[in-house]
Amino acid sequence: MDGGKGQLVCGNYILCCCNCGLSGGNIFYDSLLPGVASEKKYDFVSSLGFSMGYIGGGLLFLVNVVMYLKPELFGIPDGPTAIRLSFLSVAVWWALFSIPVFLFVKEPYVEGSVTFYEALSGGWKQLTDTFKEIRHLKIVGLFLLAYWLYIDGVDTIIRMAVDYGMSLGFPSSALITALLLVQFIAFPAALAYSWISSKIGVKNAVLTAILAYIIITLLAYFMTQEWHFYTLAASVGLFQGGIQALSRSIYARIIPVKKSAQFFGFYNMLGKFAVVIGPVMMGSVTLLTGNIRYGIVSILILFIAGGALLLKVNIEEGEKIAKEYLG
User: Fold this and answer.
1) DSSP label at 181?
2) What is the CATH code for 17-103+138-324?
3) What share of the chain in percent tops pLDDT 90?
4) What pTM did the predictor assign?
């Protein structure tokens, strides 16, 4: 194996480990929501969490972009070195801002300790048990199916926006600007969405975001200018944090509080699988038609189907069942 291939394999391995760590950490992070907030505060606290995440990620991303474009300002010899140091800065950032959680956030007390093997085998058993319980909690199952569809559309836009912009001939500077716009607009927008949900209801707020994504997807079909790309990026920023935060708070409402960790494990696992349908659909339609614009429009199916299923979710009934459920 030559040096180039070896570095590529090593890079992919590191990326895989990072994603596993992030996904695993988010399971427990999300499951803390019922423990750190009262039910009335779920929307606000969930939105605040996403809001802080967007501003924090946006600030670090901005610094990393400047490091790459102007390495001499930081005493860095060149751009490639700046990229390597950017990865290191992300690691330090995560470690630093995880400290308050470790020190100040209390978690439910668990009696006894288990070995790694017991924890691993027990985790698989809990996953299968949770799946069986979801079959009895039909409102939870219906919401998860709706979530899986519409969040797949959201994640597809997040992951494929840069590729779509590149295919339309937009310069890399425009793509970076658009990514920064999403981060910094999503910061106040996620908080604002919490207020909106208090006025129109959390389900209606999520349905509004889904409708907005349908409009954004349709407009993306007609996009030709750089300012179109910036406008759509700003529009995504307005709704991205809101739909993520309020989906999490809806789920926290309709699951048994004492089993929040295992139920959020299923929720996050489903969220990761939700990145499968959209890109495959978009790529297949693009290959069949030879037009990437048709590919982006195909994502509408996910938003429409997810929204239609969400309309059938009775959150109030789900809350009542969750409180009475003994498992």
Assistant:
1) H
2) 1.20.1250.20
3) 25
4) 0.79
